[in-house]
Structures are given as C-alpha cells and as structure tokens.
Amino acid sequence: MKLLIAPIVAGLLAVPLTVPLAVPAAAEEAKIRWHQCQRDAEDTEGAELDQAGAECGELDVPLDYRRPDGRKITLSMSRLPATGDRIGTMLLNDGGPGGPGLGMPLRLRPAMREAGTRYDLIGLDPRFVGRSTPLDCKVPQAGWPWSAGSDRASFDRAARLQASMAARCTENAAEYLPHASTRETARDLDRVRSALGERKISYLGYSYGTYLGAVYAEMFPARVDRMVLDGPLDPATYGAGMLRNAGPVNEAALRAWATWAGARHSSYGLGRTADEVLRTVRSIQRVAAERGLRVGEHTLDDGVVPVLLFASLGDDRDPARAHLAGTVRTLLAATRGPVEAGEELAGLLALLLTPALSQMVSGQLAIACADRAVSRDLRTYWRDIQRHRQDEPVFGSLTRAPSPCAFWPTAPKEQPTRVDTKVPALIVAADGDPRTPYANAAQLQRALRGSSVLTVTDARKHGLFGEYGNDCVDSSVVAYLASGDLPARPVVCARS
User: Fold this and answer.
1) For the chain, what are the domain ranges?
2) What DSSP line would sit under 156-209, residue for residue?
3) Each residue of 78-129: pLDDT tens digit?
4) Start and end of every AB hydrolase-1 domain (predicted)?
C-alpha cells in the first residue's frame, strides 16, 4: 500500500477527550474467532493465506472506546504461525493511511529470512478498512490528493471536488467518522495483543504505519517488544497536511527521473537532457490546463496530470521510471489530439477516475480527518500555493491543495498524540524519499528516544525493507528482529 495520500494545512484545534478510557476486565476476555481465510472462489488472497498455513479471524472491539460496553465493530486479521524457535507475535501495517494488511504475512515472511519463522505474523485490516467493518463514502473517483491546478478557476474546481467528497462521507458513513482516529486504532492493536494472550508484541509498519506504531508506543509503552518503522512520518506534524512539505523532494525526484529519461531519448522521445524533458512536462501541463488531454475515455485536466506524475515517483528503480516515461509519452501525444492509453496507464486512470478506489480512499479520509483538524479557510491554501508557484511548479498545487478535511462534518474528538517515550525502534529511511521527507527520520528518532536510524543514501524510494532489493537494509532489519539489539551506531546503506 504505502500510498501516503493526504494534502492540506493543519489549523483548527481538536476537541480534547475528557472521558477516561479504562478497559473493563470483561473486554480482556474477548476471543478471536479463527477459521480458514478463503471466503469464496474469487478470493485469491485468502486462498494463498490458507495454502501458506495461515488462519484468519475476527475480534469484536468497541466502536467508541469511551463507551466500551456499547456498539461493537469487527476487526479482521490473519495469523501465520511461527515454525521455528518462537520469539513472539508481530503486528504488521502497510500504511496508507487506510491500507489493508490481511495479506502482509505472505510478503513479509520471506523478506524476514531466518527471523521470519520465529514470529507469529499478524496481518490486520485496521478498523473501517478491508474486511474490518469497512467504511465507504461512495465517492465517484479517487479525488484525493488532487491538484489545485494553474489558476483560481482550477483551484475552485478542486475545492468543490473536495467538498463533494466530504459531503458523501457525511451522507454515507457519518456514524463511523468520529471513531476512525489513529488513537482508536492503537487501542484496537492492544485489544488484539490481549486477545492473543501476549504480554508484549513486536510491530513492523510502513509509511503511515510508522505513525500508528509511534502512537501505540506512546500509549502502551510497556507492551512493545521490537519495532521497525519504515518510511517515517514526523508524529508532530502528521495529519491531513502531511504532504505539504513534500513538494521540494518531489520536484527533485522529477528532475532525477528527467535525467534518466533524457539519457533514453531514443526510446521515449521526451528530450535529450533533464531540462528538455522538464520542458516537455510543463508543455503537457499547459495544454491540460488550457483544453484538456483526451486519453481513451477520459479528459485529463491540470487537476489530474500532477497526480499521474506523483503516483510514479515513489520508486526510483528502472521499471517505475520506465512506467512514468511511458505515461508522459502518452500525455505528450495527447497534446496533439486524442490517444488511446496503454494497458498500465488505462489501469491507473480507471483507478483514479472511477469508483474503483472508493472504499480505500474513504478509509484514508476518515483516518486523516479524525486525527488532526485543518484550516477551513480556503484563502490559506490559495496563498500558500501562490507563494510556491516558482519553486514547486509541478507539485506545489498538489501537496498544498485543500483536502476534504477542510469541509469535514466532525472535529477530532481527541488532541493529536504527543509522542515522547523511551520505547526504541529501528527507523528505516531513504534520504530522497518523495513521500516522507528524510528530515522526518530525525524527528521520529527524537520522539522515540533510544531509537536507531538506518539510512539509504542517494535513494528515492518509499518503503525499503523487503521491497528495494537492498541487502544492507534487509540484513540489518533481520538481524535486529532476530536479536532484539539495535545497531550500536547509525547504519548507512548505499543505494543498490
């Protein structure tokens, strides 16, 4: 998952929670109902989990932890049991926010090598995500993040889109919205720990999952064993505006890609130098703003074109760069008239511009808007974008645009979590990560005192362990998971 989709500026104060959240003794006795994972013939993920020896289960937890004996929701999870010398249980989170986790043990068990067999791996769909009492606002397209475009008219158009998404969540999911926060999800994690009969749990989280892990560590410090946080967020600034400072690193990632594409002009025809390729991108943006680009059945304006570019910049390996080059080549052709999309681009457009991602985006919105309030004054976003037109010409209008949280019907019911604890973790970060700027690693390390940072240099990849093919990263994480000993000094890995 690891999308990390959330673009807006934080503002209004949250409403503090004054009701104690003590867990009654009866809640500690809740049981997980285990069974096979495959639900029907089309459930390939469930079939793969069953084949791997996993089981799936449900646990009922309070919708509102202020009312622990009130209405319940259901958490769904998978468990891939340890087969070696067991260390304990590890919960997994794939980010998002709002990313499902049920199938994560299938991916992480091989990545963890010799340590993988020593943990019961728990792939949890967080509340309102995947199989866990899913929330769906029934939005007609992904729509978030969405670029505010090149002028005031496109800004207003983007704001109307965000307002309409908030209205759909109000109409279709209002009962769940106040209860979607990360703090409530952290309480869910601790209910899972208790139901599993574990005194402590280990945790591995990517992207937004690093924030969830940090919040859990702050709220339940005595219940954490080993923790890996990959693609770190700064817990002090996390919220619907968490991409606001990501414009510069995405502009840098775009230039790095343009250098790559320029060296392959004979294949893609986008320009022979980085500057020429970037001029091609700007010309595409200009035509999209002026009259739109007809690609297949879709007309792409300056709200969607930056989203297409952004979507491929979270990975600096050749396949991802080639995908982006193919996308830009198609968009360039569309500046001269209607074109058909290739299979990959057609699939991406179908995801972005149809209801296909409605449930996933709904979960993201609910979590981000429940965690931290934002400014509802559209003038603040417009002025912010205008100030950064020159230094963030492609992505400033995307990362600084208003989100549906500016129109949200409910205020957060708790203050954002201030993370300041001695719980240590292994923090894994790329120094050019386009989703979570590298400075976040130092901020998270200060919040989780005693933690250690593993840095991959000259890398522009979001999500590293088990994904980037970097043996230095993978070996370091596996060694920590096996021993429980953090590196004595910061680890620096060269890009593969």
Assistant:
1) 1-243+356-388+400-496, 244-355
2) HHHHHHHHHHHHHHHHHHTTTGGG--HHHHHHHHHHHHHHTT-S-EEEEEETHH
3) 999 999 999 999 999 999 999 999 999 999 999 999 999 999 999 999 999 9
4) 89-236
Q: Is 72 helix (H, G, I), strand (E, B) or coil?
A: strand
- Quote the CA–CA distance of 293 and 66 in Å, as a whole number: 50
CA 419, CA 163: separation in Å to the nearest integer?
Answer: 31
Task: Inform me whether the pLDDT recorded for 321 exceeds 90.
Answer: yes
- The burial of 202, by beta-carbon neighbours within 10 Å (0-12 exposed, 13-18 middle, 19 or more buried), is given as buried
Alpha-carbon span 111 to 135, nearest angstrom = 31
Tell me the mean pLDDT in the region 180-197. Answer: 98
Contact 294, 354 (CB under 8 A): no
CA dihedral 194, 51, 46, 105 (to 10 degrees): 50
- CATH fold for domain 1-243+356-388+400-496: Rossmann fold (3.40.50)
Contact 233, 120 (CB under 8 A): no
> Which residues lie closer than 8 Å to 112 by C-beta, 6 or more apart?
119, 466, 477, 478, 481
CA distance 246 to 152: 22
Give the list of residues 6+ apart from residue 67 with CB closer than 8 angstroms, or none: none
